[in-house]
Amino acid sequence: MIMQNTSPAETNETLKIEGLSKAFDGRYALENISFSVRRGEIVGLIGRSGAGKTTLLRCLNGADSVDSGRVLVEGRNLSTLKERELLVLRQRIGLVFQGFNLLQSRTVSGNISLALEILGVPRKERLHRIQQLIHLVGLEGHEAKYPSQLSGGQKQRVGIARALAGHPAILLCDEATSALDPEATTSILTLLETINTELGVTIVLITHEMDVIRRLAHRVLVLDQGRIVEDISGEALSRGEAEHSLTQSFISRLSNNAEDMEVAGYASSGF
Amino acid sequence: MHRQVFDLFFKATLATLEMVFASAAIAVFFGLPLAILLTVTRPGGLWPVRPIGRMLGIAVDLTRAVPFIILLVVLIPFTRFVMGTALGTAAAIVPLSITAIPYFARIAEVSLKEVSPELIDAVRAMGATRAKVVRSVLVPEALPGLVSGLTVTLVTLIGASAMAGVVGAGGLGDLAIRYGYQRFNTAMMLWVVSILVVLTILVQLGGNWISARLRKNFI
Ligand SMILES: Nc1ncnc2c1ncn2[C@@H]1O[C@H](COP(=O)(O)OP(=O)(O)OP(=O)(O)O)[C@@H](O)[C@H]1O
Ligand SMILES: [Mg+2]
């Protein structure tokens, strides 16, 4: 279901980023970034507000172009793709947003349908796929509701169902749980975990919540001022083996609930 | 009211409605695409081709700057060319449409601009073409506002259609001028005004109702 256009050599690297740089108005937002993500991995991306996390994620699906360096998605270089090919490739990358970005004018089914329409799925098959996706994210009985009638957690489930419509190899989540209360956060994390283990979907997620990292991330990248300052496995992180002071402060600051709130406020007050 | 007088009013009201709704339909047909172009060509928009946006913007504003009463006269040759005559209800639809198109375009543009750029960006990032975004995101998300805009346009057209009576357009305005003004028939004039007021209120209430129904599911 996942791999089609990949040669055997690349099958283990869903994502490969080589020397990626990107500037806005002469200032680097991302500077010489290199890393790769293996198939089935969950990578957490953390860093202060303005560090370049969102920009990096946007470069991974070609929403932003890169100034130099390469982004390879399943072995295909994004910057050599034609507009049409890029659109097709984007359909293989699921996106989940902090603000959900659902259409208010469409129901739950309608919002999922949008993704299928973009994929060019014929009407008859759409209904069946919508049912599958609704079942997958646990929204049975809410099909005909509008986003305004859903809780935050339910809205994000719609967002995730929509992101999964094209059988994506990769799911990119930008603060997918930041707008949710702790309970909804937990349920969304469980869902993401299921998607990863049962569908084998590779996940890259931005977060400022240590809980998300602790529960999901196999590996953590720490971004600071557009550079990767730490690339550490989840286990090493929980053993306290982080080298960079930023990573350590991230962990320690978030070990305490009161400060958790403060950091959350700080992070969302930024760009 | 005499049978004949009633007929007079009935026909005039129908003529007014015909002028108003026909020109409103034309205004939406041309004005909505215009509004979409004005919206998407803005900097940071879906299709930021500034020269096109600027040119259309200037054309729209110039047309809007001409007072309707002058437009009525200026357009007489054009109307004659298109409709074969510059007199009557059908002919009045030409100048009414010409004012209503840029009017509706600017109002519609306001609603379209309010659709979240982040949402549009997100749907683009999902791999949607620009045309798909316009069809499935921009217009449906702006629909309640577009209906409100159409309501305002209809109300303005009711007023303008009465003014078109000056150049022999027929309808209620024509009645007011021929009987009320030229023959000093005050009762006739009051009746015309009352019917115009009622039409305006009905259109406004109907528009509000539809818009509210559509907005019901919006946050
Ligand atoms: N479209 C843009 N135009 C100009 N500058 C931009 C643009 N997008 C991002 N930037 C700049 O690039 C830098 C990185 O921004 P980015 O949104 O990637 O940060 P972030 O790590 O996601 O922050 P946050 O945690 O607040 O979401 C910031 O300095 C920001 O001002
Ligand atoms: Mg961000």
Automatic annotation (TrEMBL), chain B:
GO terms for biological process: D-methionine transmembrane transport. It is a multi-pass membrane protein. GO terms for cellular component: plasma membrane. Gene3D superfamilies: MetI-like (1.10.3720.10). Residues 13-203 form the ABC transmembrane type-1 domain. SUPFAM superfamilies: MetI-like. It comes from the Bacteria. Its main location: membrane. The chain crosses the membrane at residues 20-40, 52-76, 82-105, 142-168, 188-210. Keywords: Cell membrane, Membrane, Transmembrane, Transmembrane helix, Transport. It is found in: Cell membrane. PANTHER family: ABC TRANSPORTER PERMEASE (PTHR30450), D-METHIONINE TRANSPORT SYSTEM PERMEASE PROTEIN METI-RELATED (PTHR30450:SF1). Belongs to the binding-protein-dependent transport system permease family. CysTW subfamily. This is ABC transporter permease. The gene is metI.
